[in-house]
Design brief:
With 323 residues, this protein is mainly alpha-helical. It has a three-stranded antiparallel sheet with strand order 1-3-2.
Length: 323
């Protein structure tokens, strides 16, 4: 097997192995909290939608990439290509938007008390589902065109302005369509990520101010509540930093491809790996930094040794009784 294909297969299968259980764990745990604990905080709603978007990315993009790397050919027809590319691009866009929503909401939570911030907190808390729905509508609209012009690679003659995406090609036919579509989507992505970065930068500033005043509020109840909010803010900042790094690398390559008339499949493989990595790495950050999810993992980890010891005792007792 070609070393590049072997490395590609290992990389994408690792993303699948990490991404599917990680995102499913978040989805199932927050669903459990909603059903049995009868409460669903706005942050939990946002994280649930983020996990759903990331899970769809794994299914629609990472799995086809992994199968292609091990030699599976002609997996998708024209209709399936349209569906897969549409699902991937909308899910990826939703992942960006929901991460931005998370950083903005957390920024509002820890901002100094004032009428404006209280008003924003109430509005976002009350309308979090509406905001998420609006993001879905915007992203569905943005990526419809690129999905409609997608087709399977079999027996199709493509123009030089074509993006090769594993089993499918997105053929823009003309240079103008290629540049306009790429530029418009890149501007939208940069706007959303810029908003995300701005909110996170403000959170960093507030955290630095908090460190200066830590001694004065450490023993108060209000101080303890604020400390919990600041811990959550650090987790969000870590999540945003992860995304911004991957986004920067991905879009640097995307801008470079806009200068090319025919983009190689290898370059698209690297871009897709970078763009998809957030879908598998972010669940790790969320699980480690979210107290609810972290407690569940600790419980599972502590329970397993007990179960093994209990099973060993039972087997020992059976042996003794047989003698």
């Amino acid at each position: 097997m070609d070393p590049y294909l072997l490395l590609k297969a290992i990389g994408f299968f690792l993303l699948v192995i990490i991404g599917i259980p990680g995102n499913l764990f978040i989805l199932l745990q927050f669903t459990y909290i909603k059903i049995f604990e009868k409460k669903h905080l706005p942050t939990n709603i946002i994280l649930t939608v983020l996990a759903m978007a990331n899970f769809l990315i794994v299914l629609s993009r990472i799995i086809p990439q992994a199968l292609n790397a091990i030699g599976v050919k002609d997996l998708l027809d024209d209709t399936e290509c349209k569906f897969v590319i549409f699902t991937y691009r909308v899910s990826r866009a939703m992942s960006i938007c929901i991460t931005t929503l998370l950083s903005c909401y957390q920024c509002i939570l820890i901002s100094p008390t004032s009428r404006v911030w209280i008003y924003l907190k109430q509005k976002v808390t009350q309308n979090v589902w509406i905001i998420i729905f609006m993001f879905w509508i915007i992203n569905l609209s943005l990526y419809t065109f690129s999905a409609l012009i997608a087709h399977a690679r079999i027996n199709i003659t493509s123009s030089q302005y074509t993006l090769h995406l594993v089993y499918c090609d997105t053929d823009f036919l003309t240079y103008t369509a290629y540049i306009v579509n790429g530029t418009f989507i890149a501007l939208w992505d940069f706007f959303i990520v810029g908003l995300m970065t701005l909110a996170s930068s403000y959170m960093v500033y507030i955290l630095l101010q908090h460190e200066k005043n830590m001694k004065g509020i450490r023993n108060s109840d209000k101080g303890q509540r604020r400390s919990a909010e600041y811990k959550a803010s650090r987790a969000v900042i870590l999540l945003v930093a992860l995304y911004v790094v991957l986004f920067g690398l991905d879009n640097s390559m995307w801008i470079y491809t806009l200068t090319l008339s025919n983009v190689s499949p290898d370059m698209n493989d690297i871009r897709i790996f970078l763009a998809s990595s957030y879908a598998t790495l972010s669940p790790i950050v969320i699980i480690i930094t979210n107290p609810k999810l972290h407690q569940v993992l600790k419980y599972i980890y502590r329970k397993r040794p007990f179960q093994k010891d209990h099973q060993a005792v039972l087997e020992h007792n059976v042996k003794l009784s047989s003698h």
